[in-house]
Specification:
It contains three helices and 36 strands. The strands form nine sheets. Strands 1-36-35-34 form a four-stranded antiparallel β-sheet, with no helix packed on it. A four-stranded antiparallel β-sheet has the order 2-3-4-5, with no helix packed on it. It has a domain of about 160 residues. The N terminus is likely disordered. The protein is mostly beta strands. Helix 1 runs antiparallel to helix 2. The relative contact order is 0.10. About 10% of the residues lie in helices and about 45% in strands. The radius of gyration is 21 Å and the shape is globular.
Length: about 425
């Protein structure tokens, strides 16, 4: 299998865990599955026989009209800009190499990595061959190695630290390093993930053991007692107690103290003062939103909802995948943008990337499944809307990624031969 598969699935693990949201498969199962695949594959990239290319397009300006292509489609893959650089891939399918371009579309770090991550906190994790296996290290924006490749896997840096794995990816021992490559939390945990800037969920042993909370120095602030914990933006972590049908979730503070009693079937993270939960009212289950006191702000009739961003939350209207459409509600629970989209990304800086056509589902995930003979293609067109629901970019692209600072990666062409560039929103 190619590196794109590993990269996307690994990102799904991070998204699922940090967003405290529902995922395509059980998180534990997913991690084990990835670990086995990487172990079998040896995690060794196949370098394409290609000369690194350079492009020269005008610098992106805030005055550029929405819908303007600021970097022409030319890459095999592309992700959003972070810290002024975007991760892109060049080469043929299954034989790509990764580098980084600036806002002019010029390579600042030539494509030479088989697997790499986007920049975060001024550095990026890159995967470097080491005999029959590969290790992760970190580079800065000049391409200089700042932490030598030595980790089986890593997450990106946030607030000066990064979670790393010693040993095999996902199944090795996990700890926390600073930008000098020094361990702040020794690699001794089976599972470790970031809940907030200074709080980390941990599990000592097997997947069935409970989770506790560490501070940024590795001190235990809450002993293992939760079936699972979820990340937060504002200091309240979702926490599940119990197992199976009896499992219920609520919210705890940064020291593990229960703030909202476990009473919900599902819990999402707080965003803009509200969190989506599945409540059980006299045997009638449904999604609603609670405030930080635990009070139910409003119930919804929708089978799927997302977190609030820019005052709007995406919701699904419909009773089946055949008639499901995404729209957006406001904080009173009112439909603010009519349900008309087949796929949406949450709002960021007043823009949301949306898809029309192809039916309900995750297009990027469906394409990965199709390449591995396990799915059906989704074919639609992507554009972008503002918070009033007005199109600022008409749906005309074959795939788009989530925007950052109003610049979004987009693809022209199909999943096999299409090329990625960048678009102003």
């Amino acid at each position: 299998m190619g590196y794109n598969f590993y990269r996307v699935v690994a990102q799904q693990v991070s998204v699922c865990k940090n967003a405290s949201t529902d995922c395509p498969m059980n998180y534990k199962t997913l991690c084990l599955y990835i670990g086995v695949l990487i172990s079998l594959a040896g995690c060794k990239p196949q370098a394409p026989k290609a000369t690194p290319t350079k492009v020269d397009t005008p610098a992106t300006q805030s005055s550029v009209a929405p819908g303007t292509v600021v970097i022409e489609p030319q890459f095999a893959e592309a992700e959003a800009f972070n810290d002024g650089l975007a991760k892109v891939e060049v080469g043929s399918p299954g034989q790509t190499m990764t580098g980084y371009v600036d806002l002019k579309g010029v390579f600042r770090i030539n494509p030479k990595y088989g697997w790499a991550m986007s920049f975060s906190d001024g550095v990026a994790a890159v995967n470097v061959p080491n005999g029959e296996k590969t290790n992760f290290g970190f580079i800065n924006a000049s391409g200089k190695t700042v932490i030598e490749p030595q980790f089986g896997y890593t997450e990106g840096f946030t607030d000066g630290t990064a979670i790393v794995t010693i040993g095999q990816a996902f199944i090795g021992q996990k700890g926390l390093v600073n930008k000098a490559g020094q361990f702040v939390i020794n690699p001794q945990y089976a599972w470790l993930w970031r809940l907030s800037k200074d709080r980390f969920a941990y599990r000592v042993g097997s997947l069935d053991e409970p989770e506790g909370i560490l501070d940024g120095h590795g001190r235990v602030v809450a002993a293992p007692q939760f079936a699972s914990l979820g990340a937060a933006d504002d200091g309240l972590f979702s926490a599940t107690v119990g197992k199976g049908d009896s499992a219920r979730c609520g919210y705890v503070d940064e020291n593990g103290k229960i703030v909202i009693n476990p009473q919900f079937i599902k819990c999402r993270k707080f965003s803009e003062g509200l969190a989506a939960v599945v409540f059980d009212d006299a045997g009638q289950r449904g999604w609603g939103y609670i405030d930080r006191s635990g009070r139910l702000a409003f119930k919804t009739p929708y089978p799927e909802v997302q977190a609030f961003s820019d005052g709007l939350a995406a919701v699904v209207v419909g009773t089946s995948k055949e008639n499901a459409k995404w729209g957006f509600i406001n904080k009173r629970g009112e439909m603010a943008i009519a349900a008309q989209f087949d796929e949406v990304h949450s709002f960021d800086d007043g823009r949301a990337v949306v898809r029309i056509g192809g039916g309900y589902g995750n297009q990027a995930g469906a394409e990965i499944g199709f390449r591995n003979n396990a799915g059906k293609l989704i074919v639609g067109k992507w554009g972008a809307i503002d918070t009033s629901g007005r199109y600022v970019v008409n749906p005309r692209f074959d795939l788009m990624g989530k925007a950052n600072d109003r610049i979004a990666p987009m693809r022209v062409g199909d999943h096999q031969t299409g090329k990625w560039g960048f678009l102003q929103l």
